[in-house]
């Protein structure tokens, strides 16, 4: 479980740094697009954050369709990623940034039009890996992420689940597995694949703001929510071997992230909960993966 804390002012002010980075590629945030509206929402929220009555009214008015939720989430991910983006190969970074600034209004997002936020999920996971000092590169078109630990390679395919159905989960697993089989085709036994699924959209639907008086309460809430998907669909990662097929695809990662507010403090939080599950029982490669990523996520469940 990881909890990032930032003042709402810092999130708002980070727009300048992001725009400077975009300008290096002759890109910009277009007025009235979602990224522009998201930064404006965060700035307006910063102006009322700390005043309980005004904050409550702002949440009621501006989060009816999840807009404030997604503004804090999307801008928070960009904020966290900014220190690491310059490490990304120039061609790949330009391609990813072009996608990010084309993000649409959350309420109008569709399963087929969710590519920009899938890119944000890639940036989020890339940032987490880099924060853990794991040598990691972002790819385009595939793999989404490649990490090196000693002589071992880990290929990640990142999928953001849109619909709250088992069919949606299995469809994304099937697509990710196909891409990973291509990535791993010519690799030796020191290379493994990981399917990384972001599940906050079907679980939270832009409605859960973690308004809490402590980080611990927020952590417990996210942990219980992530457990809900396992309660609803069972061990679907073990039921999909006929889809995964490739023994080198050793794990399915489930991830949930939600923005929130610490009461009585001008602090915005981004809580994330991650579980990693083996796709093949008694697989020594999965056990190696757990050891390799111990610095990345200390509470892996398997």
Q: How much is the radius of gyration in Å?
A: 19 Å
Span between N and C termini?
15 Å
Mean pLDDT: 83
- Proportion of beta-strand residues: 15-25%
**Which word captures the global form?**
globular
Q: How many separate domains?
A: 1
Instruction: Quickly give the structural class.
Output: alpha/beta
Helical element count?
11
Main β-sheet: number of strands, strand sense, barrel status?
8 strands, mixed
Question: Order of SSEs, N→C?
Answer: EHHHHHHEEEHEHEHHEEH
Number of strands: 8
Short description:
The chain has 302 residues and is of the alpha/beta class. The protein contains eleven helices and eight strands. It has one domain.
Features:
alpha/beta; globular; eight-stranded mixed beta sheet; 302 residues; 11 helices
How would you portray this structure in words?
It is built from eleven helices and eight strands. The chain has one domain (2-107, 115-292). α1 packs antiparallel against α2. By secondary structure, it is an alpha/beta fold. The longest helix has 19 residues, at 67-85. Strands 1, 2, 3, 4, 5, 6, 7 and 8 form an eight-stranded mixed β-sheet that branches.
């Amino acid at each position: 479980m990881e909890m990032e804390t930032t003042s709402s002012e810092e999130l708002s002010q980070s727009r300048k740094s992001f725009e400077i980075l975009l300008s290096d590629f002759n890109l910009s945030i277009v007025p009235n697009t979602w990224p522009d509206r998201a930064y404006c929402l965060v700035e307006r929220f910063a102006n009322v954050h700390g005043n309980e009555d005004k904050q409550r009214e702002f949440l009621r008015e501006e989060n009816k369709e999840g807009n404030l939720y997604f503004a804090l989430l999307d801008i928070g991910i960009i904020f966290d990623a900014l220190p690491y983006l310059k490490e990304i190969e120039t061609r790949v970074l330009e391609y990813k940034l072009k996608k990010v600034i084309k993000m649409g209004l959350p309420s109008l997002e569709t399963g087929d039009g969710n590519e920009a936020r899938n890119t944000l999920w890639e940036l989020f996971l890339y940032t987490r890996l880099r924060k853990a000092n794991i040598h990691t590169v972002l790819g385009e078109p595939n793999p989404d992420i490649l990490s090196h630990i000693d002589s071992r390679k880990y290929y990640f395919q990142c999928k953001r689940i849109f619909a709250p159905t088992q069919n949606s989960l299995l469809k994304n697993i099937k697509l990710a597995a196909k891409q990973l089989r291509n990535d791993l085709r010519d690799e030796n036994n020191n290379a493994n694949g990981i399917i990384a699924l972001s599940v906050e959209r079907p679980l939270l639907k832009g409605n859960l703001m973690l308004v809490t008086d402590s980080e611990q309460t927020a952590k417990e809430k996210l942990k219980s929510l992530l457990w809900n998907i396992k309660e609803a669909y069972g061990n679907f990662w073990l039921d999909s071997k006929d889809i995964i097929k490739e023994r080198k695809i050793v794990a399915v990662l489930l991830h949930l992230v939600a923005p929130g507010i610490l009461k009585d403090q001008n602090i915005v939080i981004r809580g994330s909960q991650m579980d990693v599950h083996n796709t093949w029982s008694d697989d020594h490669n999965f056990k190696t993966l757990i050891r390799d990523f111990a610095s990345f996520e200390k509470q892996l469940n398997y």
